[in-house]
Amino acid sequence: MQRYVYGIIQAQDVLEFDVQGIGDGAPRPQSFPLGEGLAMVSTPYRGEAIRPSRRNMITHTKVLEAIMAQQDVLPMRFGTVLPAAADGETILRAHKQQFVDAFGKVGGCRELSLKIYWQGSTAFDEVMAADEDLRAARDSLAERDPKQSHYERIEFGKQVEAAIAAKRDKEAREMRLRLQHLCTEFSQGPISDDMMVANFAFLVTPDQEAAIDEALALLDQVHGARVRFRYVGPMPPFSFVELNIDPSAAPLEGV
Questions:
Q1: 3-state SS class at 219
Q2: What 3-state class would DSSP assign to 223?
Q3: Cα Rg for the chain, rounded, in angstroms?
Q4: Rounded distance, CA 175 to CA 156, Å?
Q5: Cβ 44 vs Cβ 84: under 8 Å
């Protein structure tokens, strides 16, 4: 039978985790020993490719969190299904060193996610307040017929967009400098929203987590009226290790 895989752990015995997994009847995930102290946490799975539905993705994350509550876990990419013919010896032979290296990198650590957003019209208002030329252009356009000033309005929009982008880069850099030295490893993700200032991930030990909590509390006191902090974690280290098991014995990439 095929198996849906959640992650890799360090274990020699078969372990069962008290959480519902993906598949018919919401099976309980179990560890499948690969050998040499490594195991794959998975559930039996029948059917085609896993649909990337909200429910399935939440289930995948909840399983990883349940594992993480007990021990370190290397999270597997959502939707990883191994064929029935895949065996532990082949997987271990192909990927053992990368599993070991990844545990050496993230062992004892968790991930914290921080997304920072401007409140309301903060970015536009502050850009206008800081740039006399933009204010003059805005005021001039407000007095002109929109049809006759169409191209000028397009150019004004581009100037505002560029000013906000520069502002975003500056603020993200300042926030990063205040926080990145507090963690074991730091990652900066893509901007997914016009209101987003920064998208950070931190790999932390428990002591470092407390330090980042304190630093963010201070930042919120200073900037809370103009930006919103979306702070999530601890969670499995998604941003710092990504596994993609290939049962054909081809080496993993990018761990």
A1: helix
A2: helix
A3: 24
A4: 28
A5: no
Q: What's the pTM value of the predicted model, to 2 decimals?
A: 0.82
Q: Is 180 exposed, middle or buried (0-12, 13-18, 19+ CB in 10 A)?
A: middle
Which residues have CB under 8 Å from 46's CB, separation 6+? Answer: 1, 2, 23, 24
Q: Which residues pair with 9 in a beta bridge?
A: 39
Tell me if the bond preceding 251 is cis, omega within 30° of 0.
no
- The CA distance from 185 to 243, in Å, is 18
Tokens, residue 117: 């957003």
Q: Which residue, chain included where needed, has tokens 């499948």? A: 32
Secondary element (H or E) of residue 41 = strand 38-45
Give the residue among 252, 204, 193 at the shortest CA–CA distance from 227.
Answer: 193
Q: Amino acid identity, residue 158?
A: K
- State residue 180's pLDDT score: 93
The mean pLDDT value of the chain amounts to 87
Which residue is it, tokens 């890799």?
8
Residue with token string 């007095």: 143
